[in-house]
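Build the 3D complex.
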Amino acid sequence: MTTPDMEHSAIIARRTQLLAPTYQLFYEQPLQVVRARDVWMYDEHGRAYLDAYNNVPVVGHCHPEVVEALTRQASILNTHTRYLAELPLQLAEDLLATMPREISNVVFTCTGSEANDLAVRISKAVTGGTGFIITDYSYHGVTDVLSGMSPEDGPVGPGVYTVPSPGAPEGPAGFAAHVQNALERMRSDGIRPAALLVDTIFSSDGVFSDPKGFLAEAVRHMRDAGGLFIADEVQPGFGRLGEAMWGFQRHGVVPDIVTMGKPMGNGHPVAAVAARPEVFAQFARGRHYFNTFGGNSVSCAVALAVLQVIHKEGLLENARRTGEYLRRALVKLASRCPALGEVRGAGLFVGVEVRSDGAGTRASALATKQVVNAMRHRGVLLGSTGRGGNVLKIRTPLTFKIEHADTLVQALDDTLQAQREAPGGD
Amino acid sequence: MTTPDMEHSAIIARRTQLLAPTYQLFYEQPLQVVRARDVWMYDEHGRAYLDAYNNVPVVGHCHPEVVEALTRQASILNTHTRYLAELPLQLAEDLLATMPREISNVVFTCTGSEANDLAVRISKAVTGGTGFIITDYSYHGVTDVLSGMSPEDGPVGPGVYTVPSPGAPEGPAGFAAHVQNALERMRSDGIRPAALLVDTIFSSDGVFSDPKGFLAEAVRHMRDAGGLFIADEVQPGFGRLGEAMWGFQRHGVVPDIVTMGKPMGNGHPVAAVAARPEVFAQFARGRHYFNTFGGNSVSCAVALAVLQVIHKEGLLENARRTGEYLRRALVKLASRCPALGEVRGAGLFVGVEVRSDGAGTRASALATKQVVNAMRHRGVLLGSTGRGGNVLKIRTPLTFKIEHADTLVQALDDTLQAQREAPGGD
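Done.
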């Protein structure tokens, strides 16, 4: 139900006046946030909201050890990588220690978009190809070239071939055949393949995690055709999937290029591209790459602190355990609520299908929106995703505990019950 | 003179092992920096170096008020722009207050590259064109599309037309005619113009600041042909040129799009695109743009603090006054040193031509390198720029004082004298 937002009319008016109309707000009644701590965000009246949406604050909002590392380094030195310094090397070491040994070199950037954009540049330079395969509702970033590789946001660019996601009727088992088919289309168009680029949890497509391993055959097809495999770990990376630090590890494949971003600095803009050294070496022939802020002293100190907290607080294991508990509770809820369908995901990246009485995908998308908005009023922040807009997107800080999972599931239960009692309401 | 860097061999070896070979180090004997304050950087032995190169720490390294703003906000909240918040609006207001009233909307990004990349996307969407005009040794960023608009780094991409910089024999007065000529080439190639994209101080081309106003006619030509004017203020912006906050203001033109970055957060990754509202409005039709870290709470708090320090400490006026003093002292030095040629620039963005006894541009580039390396050993950090690599690039923090200018000029005088006395040495 839309609530007229009288309370926020002044700030919304200023926003409309000052910011470009490209900006969007969450929720029918937008939320003003003034502070946050761990898994909680607070509005201007001091009301607490359980954050089950933001994947960026991976170790919890305003984690004191991360803030401390940020402050300490910002007071001492913040400079770039054209001087010698220990920090970027320590960070590279700690990052690479979480990867298969074949991935042994790093380049730092500031955002996941910059990382994916660089991966695209590298793929083109290394293969001499211009053909990319992506899933048909994926999102990979906001730069000019990536906006053409983000069908969630708009039409794809030249040389970009889309394949149905693992959520298509053929399922994950059909994924490799779709990639093979796209390679054939590419060949008949006279386009040389550059790379298969996938988000290893297929977030925008609707969260498709299982069965583990279904990616491997698709990767083989791309490599046989001379292209690379780029694992976009911007959303699934840094332990979110519980079973491994990186989504590609669940599929038993070793990428040529790995990109990462969002959670890397717990909100501080830091991102990276890791790759096989021979891939970087070929790109580097006659080319340098300098990113002014990429790998700066402060960004490195922050990213190091985040990695340390993930290890020290056992957040990978917590994501696995709490995620499993949460999914089990959601499956149980779904078994008695016809409005909920399949529960998917791994660790603390969860997707829940929403079903509607009305026919068609539009009705399901509307029903999903209603749930998201109602949950906001009940103090739990979620999002929606998927080609049909019919999947609840749940990505909590990795410090999420059993009690938080209980709060989330109870609020969802109450929301669905209220909607059953007053259809169209809540 | 190349000094074998035994001292740093271990850290250099680790760097080679961990980072991609795309990374480069400054100086024949690379510098390890462990802390910095105001205009000084310190190596691991505590030796101080006068920073006359880094344009990012615009209010001085580790400015306490900027660190304080960073710390305070990072402890309270760091989130994105899909919730309502005051900080991005305050920052937009303070930024727009420095611009002509026609420029009244902002989008936040994290880096100058992201800002220029978005400006390119916007220009294409708004004009329906794909043709861009840039100067022939310019640099505009590292994304896929911008690497094709950065001839300093490599070949230009499709639809990109280069024109000689104001440093060409015809001089600044010939610039508009070159743009007109490029538009004619575009027309005969059947390419519709999208934008004229220039760094308003022509940094990479070799620093060309005067006479003020020479840009205006070129901009008129582009507009008459239906294209936009993008002022790349990533290097000249934020008061560096002394006479105005933005380089385009010295030329008496109002751009359609203004991009900014590097100094905006004094080292923190924050950048922005400001534009005429009708330009953003047209881009926004059917399109949103969400940059996860762009306009986040902490980045906004930091950028606000930087703007406040620039105003409070009168750094625009200091850049004008100290810059004028520095250029005058350099002109005086050049008048008695045949190794120095033209002194160019505005405020604290200064370019000094280096001449060599040897013939050809290669000899001048080598001579410039020798000066830069010798100055590093004398404790003053400079860079080089220009198509011929023969221009000393001096871009100091805007807190640079008369005494620092004296130190720089004295070191340059000593360097050139030592080189005269021992040719090929120092």
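The mean pLDDT of chain B is 96.
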